[in-house]
Here is the input.
Amino acid sequence: MTPLILRRKVAKRVLEFWEVQKSKLQSRHAEFTAEAAQFYLQQRARQQLRWFGRSKKRLQDEDLRRTRLLIVLYFSTLVVAVAKLVSHVGNGPHERITEIGAFLLLLTTGLAGAMTGIFFSQNQRSLVHRYHAQERRICDWLHKVKKGFPNLMEEDAGVLAKSPATLRNHFLDFEALMIEELVDWLHITERDKIELRP
Here is the structure.
């Protein structure tokens, strides 16, 4: 079985499993204590929000480091090219120095070209946009929950009698969002390399 077919089968099974679990959860009587709801918000939603934020920042930092390295390589290539040109003018240095200059010019040009290829062939900038979009969607979801349940974060909120089914549906919406993200990742990896770091 090819990796492409395997990923598509996994994506299909994930969606099927989610639909079954969602139906089971929707049919249950929902009653949440404030403590349970707060635990979910902290350990699931906010943790996921922090993960996307950290990942986005790490990719942006890597992008900045690569950009700086490319600038250094391009500048080095320019300096070596000018030095080689100067060595041919007038009484220039010995042939050995010219050969070293040619080698350095070839080396810096090759490195600059290779780094440019690596830089543009990776989809890291697309991942930054993806992470930013997920951050925005999670923030919107958190705002929606806080708007519907303004007292949720109070310690003495007790049992959330006001529309527990609505709160359950909010939580299911969040899980649907994360399942969608997982399936999208499976589809993205059909063609693109992705980072695998946490």
